[in-house]
Design a protein that fits this description.
alpha/beta, Metallo-beta-lactamase, Chain A, seven-stranded mixed β-sheet, Rossmann fold, 9 helices
């Protein structure tokens, strides 16, 4: 039997009796990162990186959680587990699993570009590699982060010169902080949606440096917003909450902005292609760096991507999982985090 198998609860290591990012409650869960589709409530025991733990605790509440450092080995019934940087968001990890020379890597979500906030991606050699394919089509090719942020700051500068408010959307954990880190504070003041500011507070307490931000509240005079920027969650757009900013220009930062029509569907005036996932070339590079002959594609363009890998001579398998990539954080599906975001918006 393979060291890792896939069942209706998630990725399972029978010998150690643990799951990686299970989507149904289990006894012992190893968690790659804090996004809603990978870190779910209801498990009896959680293990994650020390850097990921504060946000996971904030999102899931009172859970039994232990932490490891990157590279630290935990041995369970002879199976060696270690967590290595995935580059996706702060604290995100790939999980390396080894037993008697058989090595698997469950990558969770990952990206190769170093964003300056997340721990930089570390390639891990293995025979079996579990990968996402959120943007697993050749059309997805990212522009370097510095160029995207320059475009965003130019847009904000132009909006400010027109006496309008810039509203920039990005999901609360990961994307929002990456945007904040790249904003030019000489242009104006940064305001934040409540769900984003709650996450900022958690990250600041663990030593993550972010620029000064001000939480949007009812007490703020509406005349204070023009010329400045509001960083909001995608779910806030189209809600009554947005009306307080008056004449505003809305920008959306997402890998989906590559596609024609995506900006309109997000209710945005401007689209900026910025993703916390790999583009097509990076996915192929990451797989090559592992040296793996066996690749398991868990979410995204799974059928197309796995077919392409097979054509390149790899043993690639398409898997049906409940991971959703970037959609998990930007769609409103009634999950606990979305409800928390809506409650925050209603209170502002």
């Amino acid at each position: 039997m393979p060291l890792l198998t896939f069942n209706d609860c998630g990725i399972y290591c029978e010998r150690a009796d643990v799951y990686i990012d299970p989507w149904k409650p289990v006894d012992r869960a190893l968690i790659t990162h804090g996004h809603a589709d990978h870190s779910r409530w209801g498990n009896k025991y959680y293990l994650c990186t020390r850097a990921a733990a504060p946000v996971i605790r904030y999102r899931l509440g009172d859970i039994k959680l232990e932490t490891v450092e990157f590279g630290e080995v935990r041995t369970i019934n002879g199976v060696r587990f270690s967590f290595h940087p995935a580059g996706h968001i702060i604290g995100s990890a790939q999980i390396r699993v080894e037993y008697q020379g058989e090595i698997w890597v469950a990558s969770g979500d990952y990206k190769l570009e170093d964003d300056g906030l997340s721990e930089a991606y570390e390639p891990i050699r293995c025979q079996h590699f579990i990968t996402e394919s959120t943007f697993g089509l050749p059309v997805y090719r990212w522009t370097p982060q510095e160029e995207v942020m320059a475009d965003i700051n130019d847009w904000w500068r132009q909006t400010a010169s027109e006496g309008r408010t810039a509203i920039l959307t990005g999901y609360a954990l990961g994307k929002a902080q990456r945007l904040l880190d790249g904003l030019d504070t000489s242009i104006g003041k940064i305001y934040t949606h409540g769900a984003i500011e709650n996450t900022n507070e958690v990250l600041r307490k663990q030593g993550i440096k972010l620029p000064p931000t001000t939480r949007v509240t009812r007490e703020i005079n509406k005349k204070d917003y023009p010329g400045n920027i509001v960083v909001a969650t995608p779910g806030a757009i189209g809600q009554p909450w947005v009306k307080k900013f008056g004449n505003a220009s809305i920008g959306a930062a997402s890998g989906w902005m590559t596609l024609r029509g995506a900006r309109r569907r997000r209710g945005a005036d401007r689209g900026f292609v910025l993703s916390d996932h790999c583009d097509w070339p990076s996915l192929l590079e990451a797989i090559d760096l592992t040296g793996a002959d066996n690749v398991y594609v868990t979410h995204g363009y799974t059928a197309i991507f796995s077919k392409y890998l097979r054509e390149q001579g790899l043993n690639a398998v398409e898997l049906h999982t409940e991971y959703e990539g970037e959609l998990a954080e930007i769609e409103t599906k009634g999950n606990a985090e979305t409800e928390k975001e809506n409650a925050a918006a209603d209170a502002e």
